[in-house]
Write a structure and sequence with these properties.
Elements (H helix, E strand, L loop, with lengths): L1 E6 L13 E6 L2 H8 L3 H9 L2 E8 L2 E9 L2 E4 L4 E4 L4 E9 L8 H13 L5 E5 L5 H9 L3 E8 L5 E5 L4 H9 L12 H6 L26
Helix pairs in contact: 1-2
């Protein structure tokens, strides 16, 4: 899982405006529950814990959404719960509906969130599964820089590995996980499915694609 960081003062590439697109904060638990197909009580619990929801609407129709953690956050795959610093934000649980994919809405939603939250926050974090190539591309387009890999070591334990100088330390502090210089798993999907050992996905050999569930590495 690449984990990326952006400071509000960092230069970001310009994104061409998409006609009819607007990013709004959604405070209605019932609407978010309907969009995500989750119980309203679960959505309300997120609000209570300090999470904020944002929706990208195209010509008034909800096309994509995501959440911003302002106090605590959880990465469910790792069962890792961590604190978010007061002047930082962790962006998570982004979804773009199939009919709106490939239009560039995702990076514009991220950029819209950063613009709004920058009034009070300085640093922004976001992550994606290593096999989620479309998400990684969108994160980069929004100006985020990949600073570390969040994955599993030889023993299957979660660790962070720096991609930039000091990137591993920054991610380790945020997540409360150890930093490692050793080889880490390149694909979460294969590890979770137990098709292969964590290290058997060699660089360039993994065929998994988050947007294509039928893909996967050979056992």
């Amino acid at each position: 899982m690449p984990i990326a960081y952006l400071h509000r003062d960092d230069p970001v590439p310009p994104l061409t405006p998409l006609p009819g697109l607007r990013v709004v904060e959604e405070r209605d638990a019932s609407r978010m529950a309907a969009l995500q197909g989750r119980p309203e009580t679960q959505i309300q619990e997120r609000f209570t814990e300090g999470h904020r929801a944002y929706v990208a609407e195209l010509d008034g129709v909800a096309a994509s959404w995501g959440w911003v953690a302002t106090a605590t956050a959880t990465i469910g795959e790792l069962e890792a719960r961590f604190m978010v610093a007061p002047r930082e934000r962790y962006l998570w649980n982004f979804v773009t509906l199939p009919a709106f994919r490939g239009m560039g809405i995702y990076p514009r939603l991220i950029a819209g969130i950063v613009e709004r939250e920058s009034a009070v926050a300085e640093g922004f974090w976001i992550a994606c599964a290593p096999e989620n190539h479309a998400s990684e591309a969108g994160i980069r387009k929004a100006g985020f820089e990949l600073v570390a890999e969040l994955s599993f070591d030889l023993d299957g334990a979660p660790v962070v590995k720096g991609l930039l100088p000091d990137g591993g330390r920054m991610a380790a502090v945020l997540l409360g996980l150890p930093e490692s210089d050793d080889t880490v798993a390149l694909c979460w999907k294969c590890v979770r499915a137990k098709r292969v050992t964590p290290m058997s996905c060699a660089a360039g050999s993994c065929a998994c694609d988050y947007q294509r569930p039928e893909t996967g590495c050979a056992a």
